[in-house]
UniProtKB/TrEMBL annotation:
This is Membrane transport protein. Pfam families: CitMHS. The chain crosses the membrane at residues 5-21, 27-45, 57-75, 95-122, 143-164, 176-196, 229-245, 251-271, 278-297, 309-329, 341-359, 365-390, 402-422. It is found in: Membrane. One of its GO terms (cellular component) is plasma membrane. The keyword Zinc does not apply. It is a multi-pass membrane protein. PANTHER family: BASIC AMINO ACID ANTIPORTER YFCC-RELATED (PTHR43652), RESPONSE REGULATOR (PTHR43652:SF1). Keywords: Membrane, Repeat, Transmembrane, Transmembrane helix, Transport. It comes from Ruthenibacterium lactatiformans. Coiled coil: none annotated. Residues 16-334 form the Citrate transporter-like domain.
Length: 424
């Protein structure tokens, strides 16, 4: 290993430790790492901060503004009300319908805010023997990360593209619809298990936890009818543009930003809302880690490890096994550290380099690793599983009865779908 490799690796490890520690604001560790790369001479200023002019990051930043506008519409309010009413009625049929409603909501909303909203609402529902809250609380929590109509996948498609490009793989594009299809297959696998796994969960009230949970309410004024129509049109235009991104070329990446500007000019979003979404901690995290991953690749470290892994696996190993190995490494690391981004940007570049060294197309493993970085809930370490375990008053054994089978099913389905869709 060269001195540059050692220094760059030390900075990457330090970044991961900072992310795991939760002592730093979300998005700050990659920025600190970028500065250290420049100060140590391991990367130029343009190389370290390349993520901030990355076309995928710019596109996703604009898309997040559009999603913020969509969350202010009456459609989202209706989704919330429907979810509460169905759970209150009880019955196995309503449980399945409620799962679908939450998964539909996950199609346009995601992240911490959504799962906190869902769990907070469900935990306030009185105990019903026909549909015990303890039996639906966990499945509904995980449903928030399994969209049944995956239309807001631009962030993940951008991550795949950035990982491939930063690893030196060019000319490979993952269409939004194709990625959405893979995510849909994973979500269907979740739905099948949730219908079955419901029966293995305990029956007990969780009223005390519900009493402590506060229902989140929408901030700001409600949109007028014409503004809502504009938001719906903006969302559809944005979605269609991302579908045909490969045909639109470079101008297509600017469309979400243009739409965001229109929403601001029309008064649908104020400047603070636009600014907070364009420069959100999530965008800072994504932009920062692109430069860090690029520096690690430029040092030769990822290629060296990739060659070593390729040599260890041999030439006769099945492509499915290769994808499965790196998917498990990414997912388990994210599970036990709670650092999805850190785990992804360590193992994905190595996985891509290993595939390149073996003469294989790395698209499948890149897609699988990006998706698996957020399948990190078989241990109650990260926010959502920890919240489910605590508020749901589950024992760890009860927790694993649902999560372990789900984890195995989704990982196998994900790897299989990636290898089929993106032949290696």
């Amino acid at each position: 290993m060269t001195i540059q490799m050692i220094i760059t690796l030390a900075i990457v490890i330090g970044m991961i430790v900072m992310i795991m520690s939760d002592k730093f604001a979300f998005g700050a560790p990659p920025l600190i790492a970028c500065v250290l790369l420049v100060l140590t001479g391991c990367a130029t200023m343009s190389e370290a901060f390349a993520g901030f002019v990355d076309k995928n990051v710019i596109m996703i930043a604009g898309f997040m503004v559009v999603m913020a506008a969509l969350e202010k519409t009456s459609l989202i309010d209706k989704v919330k009300a429907t979810m509460f009413n169905m759970a209150s009625k009880g019955g196995y049929r309503n449980y399945i319908l409620l799962l679908i409603v939450v998964m539909l909501g996950a199609s346009v909303m995601s992240g911490t805010g959504y799962y906190v909203l869902v769990l907070s609402l469900v935990s306030t529902i009185p105990y019903n023997k026909n549909l015990p809250i303890s039996k639906i609380f966990m499945p509904l929590g995980y449903a928030t990360y399994n969209p049944i109509v995956p239309v807001n996948m631009a962030f993940y498609v951008g991550l795949v593209a950035s990982l491939l490009e930063s690893s030196g793989v060019t000319g490979t594009a993952v269409p939004l619809l194709v990625y959405s299809g893979i995510k849909l297959v994973s979500s269907i696998a979740f739905l099948v298990w949730a219908v079955i796994g419901y029966r293995f969960l305990p029956d007990h009230p969780i009223a005390e936890a519900g009493a402590q949970a506060s229902e989140q309410k929408s901030e700001g004024e409600k949109l007028s009818r014409w503004k809502e129509i504009v938001v719906y049109i903006a969302f559809v235009v944005n979605f269609v543009a991302m579908i045909f991104l490969d045909k639109l070329g470079e101008p297509g990446y600017a469309i979400p930003g243009v739409i965001a500007a229109v929403l601001f000019v029309l008064g649908i979003l104020n400047f603070k809302e636009v600014r907070n979404n364009i420069a959100s901690p999530l965008i800072l995290m994504m932009a920062g880690v692109i430069g860090v991953a690029g520096a690690l690749a430029n040092s030769g470290f990822t290629a060296m490890v990739g060659d070593a892994v390729a040599g260890a696996l041999g030439t006769s190993v099945s492509p499915f096994v290769i994808v499965l190995v790196f998917t498990l490494l990414t997912s388990l690391s994210a599970t036990f550290t709670g650092a999805s981004f850190g785990s992804l940007f360590v193992f994905a570049p190595i996985a891509i380099s290993a595939c390149v060294s073996m003469g294989l197309d790395p698209t499948a493993v890149a897609v699988a690793c990006v998706t698996a970085a957020w399948i990190n809930w078989i241990m109650p370490i990260d926010g959502m599983p920890a919240m489910i375990l605590g508020m749901g008053k589950y024992k760890l054994v009860d927790f694993w009865k649902f999560t372990l089978p789900l984890y195995v099913i989704q990982i196998l389905v994900l790897c299989g779908a990636c290898v089929i869709v993106f032949p290696m």
